[in-house]
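Fold this sequence, please.
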Amino acid sequence: MTSADPVRRGGREAQRRRTRKAIVDAAVRLSADGATPSIDEIAAAADVSRRTVYAYFPSLDHLLIDATAGALNEPPVEQALADPTIAGDPAARVDTLIRTLLTYSPQSLPLGRRLIRLTVDQPVSGTPEPSGPRRGPRRIEWLEQACEPLRDTLTEESYQRLISALTIVVGWEAQIALRDVRGLGPEAEEEAITWAARALVEAAIREHEADNPQDDDPTHPDGR
């Protein structure tokens, strides 16, 4: 592996995200008046091929559900994470992300259940297998945004592990487990998800501090 490999991978991933976002944004625009656009119309509006659309979304239903969920959640999440009072506090930022998502849960969770079913089931015969993850990067982007204060503190491995762990406890899957398996109501659900996410953030910070005690020692030459 050369030193350029991570850069190339990062560039490809960024391009994938841009292409996917262009497709979703086109679907949102075309659906704004209540009409249901076709794959061809969405592809044309996104300036991509029909094949490219299917590389990211195995069906029109999948694409439209994803676009609707994004249009519902993105504005309030972006606004919440822009709050300057929590700019340097990753735990508070993750708490804010969770509360914001759960606020819109009555509208978004039914979409989430449908989207999960579509992505868990195998694609129908003849439909191209989507390249990369079957679900979009929206949740990962929000978690990375929330944990941004830790980006330069944790090692890259620790940071990515934290994002992966938070992916398990923040999102529709966690809500479904708490509601369907545990039978929790909204308040208990929020408390459990917030507690679990904060525990993960604090564990990552404690692990870093244990591995790098000089960071908290002002007398150490490398102390900050």
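The chain is about 70% helix and 0% strand. The two ends are 33 Å apart (CA to CA).
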